């Protein structure tokens, strides 16, 4: 975990570099040189070689007096390698909007008696005396220069270490000296990170500087003269910070020592025999992407199971599938469940996964979601009411229910009464590892017992996973069969080893190295499989290990939301950021790599095909927990860890999986904890122990509720990620959390004035790092003060949902110019004001917006208001649009077709209405995914001219649709067509579609 520790330290240093005080230090340098010099300096690093270089004094015009010292320090910083300069100092890219800062310094100069600091135009100060006065006031900037120099130098060394650590994976990752060095590096990185955040980001320092800056920036100059001792104010702040210089200097020296020792070890390894890890190479030699969801050796099983599901007995029958973890129980059940012939034989099909941590409510809601259109009010019902609803939904229907991964007989006792037996050949398929459970559920019929694969089947599966549709080269056949044999017929082990083989150079020596490692793991007992799976973990690139282990924090069998996982990875600082990619994009690449290696499984996909949820196989999660605990990376407190007091002392990440009635107050104080995630349901929770987590970065208590906001959270000034359930009004002081990147709020919370939508009172516009703000219910976002006067507006905000239409003002959008995803909802209050069209026009200010969810107020469909087509004039940058309840006529959809970049369109709940839709000449030029859900459409004409790029079409809840447009079959790009719960005539029309390569899926209510 040394790699993760180093990336976290770099992230802390970058955060430090962009603290308000250092931002103004850097910007003052930028402002205090003329434009000509600025242009020269921008070109200069591009001409610098790989070696450090110094700038001659002739290269720039140096202002006289105190600014000479400033310039000398600037030259000192520029002696550092240009890569680090651009990546970590970024003088000319950090907060490029210099206008507000320039105005601040002009105001600052007038307070000191200057007419104006026209330094951007090369004008010198009025006198040496005034230069000296400016020198005294600018001590914070001089401090910034020295501190920035040390930060950049340390980052330079840390970048080298990241590369060296990554190389260690490719040479010898079990070298004892290397492990010892990595331990030292982890210790050093953690100590430095802790010291920086305890001292530099102390709230009494950072808040003081920020308030001082904003105060001077806003208040009239004449009021300030004679009342503010600038020198004293700056000196206070600087004195508080000087201790960090020694810490950084000592860290640099220690890092240099570690670099030298790593170099010696590397030289020894290079001169000796290279190990297995030397098999990795450039992308050109990697295997092609493996095919997914291969079912090998299941033909006989599929035939037997199909017979049991379709044979004569009309009574309700339970079919049990038994086998060890990773043997293919779920794969077999899924193949049966997804078989079109199976779907046609049953009126209702449902799939639900249990787990060791079993909750009846989750099971009931999961089944209801499959067989009915689950409504919000269902979530408030008791378990008994949910069971009754489920029974009524299944009554009279021929159904197929799959209950996957059952661990105890109690589960069956809880649910068996909710399945009606109408003597119509309904079936229940239940998978389990426990033979006792299978016998208990169905003692009259034999369970279907899964078998291990034979050598031929094992080799067949390995080939398909490694080579895909390509044929295997003859030189790999014998060694490949040897590897397959040593996996001992366990499909999961074969798949994971195949993931490793697909990532290494395809040479016989490399494969023999894998074969030897697998061979050494052959033994008896359940640990055998874990050790085989550990092969893939041990040979993961260093940058992926922490991300993989972090997934063990989530409960067993839980589907992990990809957006949440990525936000957590970003907050933790695990990512090795790339200049050209956002942190979120880098995280997506990491996840895709883990999926390609078969270490992470895909749960659900989004409408556009992207991964929406993912999960870990039980055995891989066990591996996660084992390795995480061994590395002291993550500690999970569950029912198996009731004696957690002894193992929790030095942990930096805690994940709580206790039952909801467990006493969380028993969790001891752990001052080093950086992440606290709680997946236990509970109420009346007062997190007193959180007050001791001063360095906390991640706090996820979304499953806990409280009657009031825990004020202890406001002291956690380092928080990057906060998720909570609010049954109260959030305090305005939450804006004190200025390091926050992601804020997730689940409601509803209590309002001061009943009947009004909730209002967010906190000053989000002074939270410069905020990237994602998610609110589960529409709320009113308070307007910022004059945005043009805000020197530290949040420039990073990418995601905002869900806010009222009334919050769509130009002032709100002005402080979030780079917003990419937005969710808005029209409330009753918005509807009454009849100003929605005017508010929506302000969306034009969002010039980077890519995804928009827009839901209008739900009205009576018989007499809805008439909206003007101008309401559909959205930003041209939109790639994804979801509309609901707008009741627009179909002819107005031409406005949406004009969006040049639109790829995904979802029309829900009468977004458009009317019996006829005749598309105009305006085509959806780039539209790939199209959903129409719940409308009164009867006749629709469409062809490839209207949808030249369409790949995926879904019609859902179109009860009046008379038929499918004949032109649909002419769309050559169409790959999948789905018809869900539509009219009978539409279903008949869809069944007549016969196009090669087009998947047609039909779901009906009966």
Automatic annotation (TrEMBL):
Gene3D superfamilies: 1.20.5.4130, Helical domain of apoptotic protease-activating factors, P-loop containing nucleotide triphosphate hydrolases, Ribonuclease Inhibitor, Winged helix-like DNA-binding domain superfamily/Winged helix DNA-binding domain. It comes from the Eukaryota. Residues 306-470 form the NB-ARC domain. Residues 673-987 form the Disease resistance R13L4/SHOC-2-like LRR domain. One of its GO terms (molecular function) is ATP binding. The keyword Repeat applies. GO terms for biological process: defense response to virus; plant-type hypersensitive response. Its main location: cytoplasm. Confers resistance to late blight (Phytophthora infestans) races carrying the avirulence gene Avr1. Resistance proteins guard the plant against pathogens that contain an appropriate avirulence protein via an indirect interaction with this avirulence protein. That triggers a defense system including the hypersensitive response, which restricts the pathogen growth. Belongs to the disease resistance NB-LRR family. This is Late blight resistance protein homolog R1A-3. It comes from Coffea arabica (Arabian coffee).
């Amino acid at each position: 975990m040394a790699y993760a520790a180093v990336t976290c330290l770099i992230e802390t240093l970058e955060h430090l570099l962009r603290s308000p005080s250092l931002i103004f230090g850097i910007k003052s340098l930028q402002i205090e040189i003329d434009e000509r010099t600025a242009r020269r300096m921008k070109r200069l690093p591009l001409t610098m070689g790989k070696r450090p270089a110094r700038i001659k004094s002739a290269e720039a015009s140096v202002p006289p007096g105190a600014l000479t010292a400033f310039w000398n320090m600037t030259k000192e910083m520029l002696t550092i390698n240009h890569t680090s300069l651009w990546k970590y100092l970024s003088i000319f890219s950090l907060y490029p909007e210099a206008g507000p800062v320039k105005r601040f310094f002009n105001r600052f100069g007038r307070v000191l008696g200057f007419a104006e600091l026209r330094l951007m135009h090369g004008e010198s100060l009025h006198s040496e005396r005034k230069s000296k006065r400016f020198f005294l006031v600018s001590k914070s900037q001089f401090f910034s220069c020295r501190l920035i120099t040390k930060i950049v130098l340390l980052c330079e060394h840390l970048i080298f270490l990241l590369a060296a650590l990554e190389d260690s994976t490719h040479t010898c990752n079990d070298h004892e000296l290397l492990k010892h060095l990595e331990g030292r590096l982890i210790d050093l990185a953690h100590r430095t990170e802790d010291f920086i955040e305890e001292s530099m980001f102390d709230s009494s320092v950072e808040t003081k500087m920020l308030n001082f800056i904003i105060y001077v920036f806003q208040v009239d100059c004449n009021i300030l003269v004679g009342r503010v001792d600038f020198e004293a104010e700056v000196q206070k702040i600087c004195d508080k910070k000087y201790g960090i210089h020694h810490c950084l200097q000592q860290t640099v020296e220690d890092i240099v020592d570690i670099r030298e020792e790593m170099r010696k070890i590397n030289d020894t390894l290079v001169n000796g025999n290279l190990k297995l890890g030397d098999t990795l190479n450039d992308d050109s030699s990697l295997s092609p992407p493996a095919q997914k969801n291969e079912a090998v050796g299941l033909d006989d099983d599929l035939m037997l199971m199909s017979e049991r599901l379709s044979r004569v007995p009309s009574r309700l029958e339970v079919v049990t599938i038994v086998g060890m973890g990773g043997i293919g129980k779920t794969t077999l059940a899924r193949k049966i469940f997804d078989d079109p012939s199976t779907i046609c034989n049953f009126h209702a099909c449902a799939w639900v996964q249990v787990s060791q941590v079993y909750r009846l409510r989750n099971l009931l809601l999961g089944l209801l979601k499959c067989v009915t259109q689950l409504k919000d009010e269902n979530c408030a019902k008791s378990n008994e009411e949910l069971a009754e609803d489920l029974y009524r939904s299944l009554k009279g229907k021929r159904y197929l229910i799959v209950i996957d991964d059952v661990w105890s007989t109690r589960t069956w006792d809880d649910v068996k009464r909710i399945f009606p037996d109408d003597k119509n050949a309904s079936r229940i398929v239940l998978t389990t590892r426990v033979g006792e459970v299978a016998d208990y559920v169905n003692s009259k019929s034999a369970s279907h017992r899964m078998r291990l694969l034979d050598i031929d089947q094992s080799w067949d599966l390995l080939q398909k996973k490694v080579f895909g549709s390509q044929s295997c080269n003859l030189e790999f056949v014998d060694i490949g069969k040897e590897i397959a044999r040593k996996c001992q017929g366990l499909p999961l082990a074969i798949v994971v080893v195949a993931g490793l083989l697909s990532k290494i150079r395809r040479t016989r020596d490399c494969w023999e190295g894998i074969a030897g490692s697998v061979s050494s793991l052959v033994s008896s007992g359940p640990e055998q499989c874990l050790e085989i799976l550990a092969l893939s973990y041990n040979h993961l690139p260093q940058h992926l290990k922490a991300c993989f282990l972090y997934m063990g924090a989530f409960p067993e069998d839980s589907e992990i939301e990809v957006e949440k996982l990525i936000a957590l990875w970003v907050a933790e600082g695990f990512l090795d950021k790339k200049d050209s990619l956002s942190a979120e994009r880098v995280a997506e690449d990491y996840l895709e790599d883990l999926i390609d290696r078969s270490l992470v499984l895909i749960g659900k996909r989004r409408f556009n095909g992207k991964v929406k949820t993912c999960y870990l196989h039980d055995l891989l999660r066990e591996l996660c927990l084992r390795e995480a605990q061994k590395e002291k990376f993550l500690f999970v407190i569950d029912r198996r860890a009731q004696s957690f007091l002894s193992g929790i002392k030095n942990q930096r990440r805690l994940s709580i999986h206790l039952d909801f009635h467990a006493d969380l107050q028993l969790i001891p104080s752990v001052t080093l904890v950086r992440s606290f995630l709680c997946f236990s349901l509970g109420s009346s929770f007062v997190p007193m122990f959180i007050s001791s987590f001063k360095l906390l970065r991640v706090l996820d208590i979304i499953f806990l509720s409280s009657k009031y906001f825990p004020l202890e959270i406001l002291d956690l000034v380092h928080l990057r990620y906060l998720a909570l359930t609010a049954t109260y009004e959030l305090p305005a002081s939450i804006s004190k959390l200025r390091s926050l990147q992601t804020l997730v709020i689940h409601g509803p919370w209590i309002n001061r004035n009943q009947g009004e939508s909730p209002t967010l009172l906190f000053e989000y516009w002074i939270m410069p790092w905020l990237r994602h703000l998610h609110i589960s219910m529409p709320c009113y976002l308070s307007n910022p003060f004059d945005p043009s006067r805000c020197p530290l507006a949040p420039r990073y905000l990418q995601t905002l949902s869900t806010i009222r239409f009334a919050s769509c003002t130009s002032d709100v959008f002005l402080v979030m110019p780079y917003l990419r995803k937005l969710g808005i909802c029209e409330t009753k209050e918005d509807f009454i004001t009849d100003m929605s069209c005017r508010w929506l026009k302000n969306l034009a200010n969002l010039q980077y917006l890519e995804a928009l969810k827009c839901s209008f107020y739900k009205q009576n469909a018989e007499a809805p208001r008439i909206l003007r087509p101008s309401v559909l004039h959205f930003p041209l940058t939109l790639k994804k649009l979801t509309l609901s309840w707008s009741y627009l006529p179909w002819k107005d959809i031409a406005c949406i077709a004009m969006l040049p970049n639109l790829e995904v369109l979802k029309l829900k709940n009468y977004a458009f209405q009317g019996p006829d839709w005749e598309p105009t000449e305006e085509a959806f030029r780039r539209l790939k995914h199209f959903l129409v859900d719940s409308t009164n459409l009867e006749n629709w004409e469409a062809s490839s001219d209207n949808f030249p790029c369409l790949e995926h079409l879904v019609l859902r809840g179109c009860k009046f649709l008379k038929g499918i447009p004949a032109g649909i079959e002419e769309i050559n790009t169409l790959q999948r067509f789905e018809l869900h719960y539509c009219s009978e005539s539409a279903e008949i029309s869809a069944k007549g579609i016969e196009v090669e390569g087009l998947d047609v899926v039909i779901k009906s209510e009966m």
